Amino acid sequence: MKRYSVFAVAREALRYHSGWERAWASPEPKKKYDVIIIGAGGHGLATAYYLGKNFGITNVAIIEKGWLGGGNTGRNTTIIRSNYLQDPSAAIYEKARSLYETMSQDLNYNVMYSPRGVMMLAQTQHEIRGYQRTAHANALQGVKTEFIGPERVKELVPIINISGPRYPVLGALWQDRAGTARHDAVAWGYARACSDMGMDVIQKCEVTAIRREGGKVVGVTTTRGDIDCNKLGVVVAGHTGVVADMAGFRLPIESVALQALVSEPIKPCMDVVVMANTVHGYMSQSDKGEMVIGGGADGYNNYTQRGSFHHIEETVRALVETFPMISRLKMLRQWGGIVDMTGDRSPIISKTPVENVFINCGWGTGGFKAIPGSGWAMAELIAKGEPGPLAEEFSMWRFREGKFIDESVAAGVAH
Ligand SMILES: Cc1cc2nc3c(=O)[nH]c(=O)nc-3n(C[C@H](O)[C@H](O)[C@H](O)COP(=O)(O)OP(=O)(O)OC[C@H]3O[C@@H](n4cnc5c(N)ncnc54)[C@H](O)[C@@H]3O)c2cc1C
Asked: How far is the CA of 89 from the centre of ligand 1 (A)?
């Protein structure tokens, strides 16, 4: 595959852009692969990429029922941070954040990683204590964060109202190398790199059954026929329960809608990401100028990928006190994605009761930031058949054993 470079752009500019090739191939499925990954979201594609890059396994198909990144990967609000409380979480999210730093160069694809800084506002005494605790934990984990006072918050975000009547801003947990990236580009960049390694990215192909013999996976049935495999990775986020059911086991996962919206584009006014978890809202400004706004997940199970008026009203109402200027903005569009939530708000990267079926799910409202770290860990699990250091605490059996990795503070509303 031809490399993208400044010289390529100049060359194509001179010949009316007639020489670009397709970024990835659209092959017909083969009869058999060493590894099949179900789900071409960021996590599935990153898993395939690191299987090839780190383990030289390239006889791989990534099977997607819709289109590349059409699930949560293309629907999120793109926040990347690693300021989690528990050690296993900080390790995998920080691994992911550090891989984002060089992802554009690794993939030869501009994912527009913007380490603009993320702050989580403390608007109650309880939050001050909670975030100070996280800052101390992060210091021990080697994750650079700090607790800052309200004056510094105002300096970083001039449009914020720090003396709101209900919830004044009392400080914030600040991570300066956290930020955002272009979410579609992450999926497209991985897909292009996978295709370049000879892997098959197969879109519009739904897996409808998982075929097993003697407790071991032998292949999948899809809307385009049966495909055999030696190993199977299930990376389907909100549809995890449905696909696990096909393999004959159950998981402690709930599927709920998470919604977001963007405003009309306006002039640059905020160059960091701000989360206000007490009032249930967060906001950043996209490169196009839109204010990107999100809130908490819906309170009921659902598989419908769309927004609802009452939720938008609640989220915007929550943010208007802290950002009075948004009350004058027009909203452009809203949408929803189906997120896969575990009880402890931490993911599952695990072997399963079916031999050679591996599962990666439970990223809930916050898995975009984890994509490269998760793919790295899942590739190791599939290649070696056992979890490596990044994944070993995230087994599905931790719920039976009571070894929860409680991230409800870091991941309840914050994404
Ligand atoms: C509104 C919203 C805001 C968010 N904001 C953030 C944020 O700011 N920061 C952050 O870190 N995270 C955020 N998230 C969460 C993040 O988007 C997800 O955790 C992450 O994208 C999950 O990626 P994935 O690859 O696991 O899933 P997905 O991208 O959903 O990919 C799974 C794929 O599997 C496919 N699939 C399902 N069933 C089948 C089948 N039977 N056969 C074949 N294919 C199948 C689906 O079509 C889908 O494309 C947000 C999510 C939403 C919805």
From this structure: 19
